[in-house]
Structures are given as C-alpha cells and as structure tokens.
Amino acid sequence: MKSRSSCRSPLFSVLQVARQVAPVMGLCTAFFGFGNNGSLINAAWAAPQGPVTLAVPEGLLPPGEGTVTFPEARLRRKWRNSELLTLPPPAGQPQSQPQTVRLESWNTLEPTLESTTTHFPPRWQAVLTNTLQAQLGCVHSWLQPLDSKGNCGLTAGVLPVTLVWDSGRLHHAPDWSALWDVVRLPGQRSLPATARGTLEIALLADGVTPGNVYRLLATPAGVDRAFWRLDQLRPYIVWWQTPLEARRFLERREVLMGLAPTALLPAGQKAFVTNPDHVLYSPQVWTLPATLDTLQTNRVTTLLHERTPGLPPLPTSRPSTSLLLDDTFWATHGQALEERFQTWRAQKVAH
Which of 148, 155, 165, 258 has the fewest CB atoms found within 10 Å of its own CB? Predict the structure, then answer.
C-alpha cells in the first residue's frame, strides 16, 4: 500500500537533462524461472555491463525467503532478499556475456518510489508497482511513459490481498462482515493505513455488493457510510504501513483477523489461514524510473514487451465476494479520499 504523505514538485527539467547525459550502463530485461532441480530456464535478461536490478513489493521478497511466480514458466522458487543471480547466456550469445539479475524488495511507500526513481544513476531498472502508483509516478515525473499514448506501466498481473485470521482462536472462516463483529469475535484487526482498499472493505462489510462498491463510493453518501463503519471498528484496528508490518502482526499473533497480501503469510506456519473467497485484487505493472538513459530505456522497454516477468493474471472466474481494486476510480477520487482518510486516522480515538 502506498502513502500519500509525500507529493513534492516534479524535477522534470533536471530529469530530462539527466536522461540525455546518463552513461550507458548496459541493459537488461528478463524472464526467468527455475526447474525442479533449481536450474535456471527461460532466461531473457541480458546485462553485459552489470546486473539489472528489479524491485518488487515486499512479501514477494521478504527478509529471509519469499516466493516469486513467473507465469510464463508456471514455476516457483524461493528467493532471498537482494539475491544476485548469475545466469548462463542463452543459445547464440557469446559466452563472455553472462546474464545477471538482482531482485530487491521495496516497501511500496510513495516517498520510497520518488526517492529511488529520481536518483541518478537509478538504483532499479524496473519497479513493480500498482497501477495507481504508476499513474502518480508519471504525473510527478518520477516514472516515464512507456509509449506515445502515455501509458506508464506494463501489465504484470495482480497481487491478492486476502482476509486472514488466527485459526487457533477462530475455528470457522469469517467473511467481510465478521471483521466488524467485535462483540461476537473480540480481538484486534489489522488493516492497511490507506484509503485505497480500506474504504472498499468498510462498504463490503456493510453489505454492499462488490459490483456496487465504486458506484456508491463515488457519492458523498457512500463515502460517509464507509467512514461511519470505520468509526465503529476504529478502537480495534492496528494499522500497517508496509507489507512487512502486516507480516509482523501475523508472526506475533497480535491480531485476530485482518487484511494482508497473500504471499506474506509466514512460511510453515499454521496459525493464520486465508479465506480464498474474500480477496482484493491489486493490479500490478512494471514501471521505469525517469532517470534511465535513453538507450537503456529503449532496450528495457523492448524486452519488457517481448517477455514480461510478473504475477499471476486476474482469474477469469472469481468469487462473488472478491473485488478488483479500481485504480481508474482512485486516479480520479484518490487525493480527496486519502486526505480525508489520513485526517480521520490522525484523530484521537474516543473511549
């Protein structure tokens, strides 16, 4: 989830100059996966002058081990944070040009996106963000458009954010409304500290169908209804700013239930389980920092279009209780809703 705490003036002219004078650092783009024996297959990222660095949201590469799924190969492998992989060159390329890929996690906060993508030279050659972050990044010139139409991201699947609960304390699967049932199910709830996603959950818990959430949230009455529901739950909410904060709440068993990216569930644990019917799907895209030089930008863009690593696509058949987050809605209404949400969250809880 992102933070709206930072919206600084774009460094457009500086970035434009930087892109023209930037040294050629070599290129990479890649699609890779691992076979059952750990051998690398399907590699297409080439970095003759150094490794390419891809940034993905926390939870895919948590400290320790996580899982990244590359849908073309339909294979999985556990990674360590910032692990450097040196890959053999594909057939037909000189053996003197090995391929290397570095995967790093980022905390999904807007100030982090700004600082890393406007730094020169760029720390990352591509960043996996949600579609709203991509739009905001282009508006502020932190990220660059990928085509003449102004599209700022290349589709890379969806990141599921799921209703999770402590099965040691709750012996049946809760639904959205159970998040608010603190009389029958007392205990803390963990929610993302952002309007995006949280306001939708408030309406779903109040009986609004997924198909009507954004129609209602586009009206003052619908927004008031969502905040009224949040007022009721507020004393029981613990907020997470980043995916790893959500993970820590689960590891320490500090909450009875809440929302968390599915990939964040601690490996090997049996305490917390998910309800696969109660999911928010967050669209993800690959974005390019504004400080990439022109040659590197062209190469990365070309190869990203040829073979894109990413997450699983949006399921064609989804549970009726799930919701695809609408970042077109948030691009239009996000600033006003986020400002109201953060003002509300900063108020003291009435006892």
Answer: 148
